[in-house]
Amino acid sequence: MDAHNHDDAPDGAWQGILENAVDIFNESEGTDFDSYDMFIMWVESRGTDAK
Length: 51
Known about the structure:
This protein is mostly helical. The protein has helices at about 10-30, 35-45.
């Protein structure tokens, strides 16, 4: 997700870009991760450095 972390984007767009990264990963890897849940987990794992 770090590769998709365009932190200069507005907050809603930033979240959408990161959720889209999960969707792309799901499609390419045949997985079914929830994009919102993965976004939240990623933000929480980054702490205050998330954006």
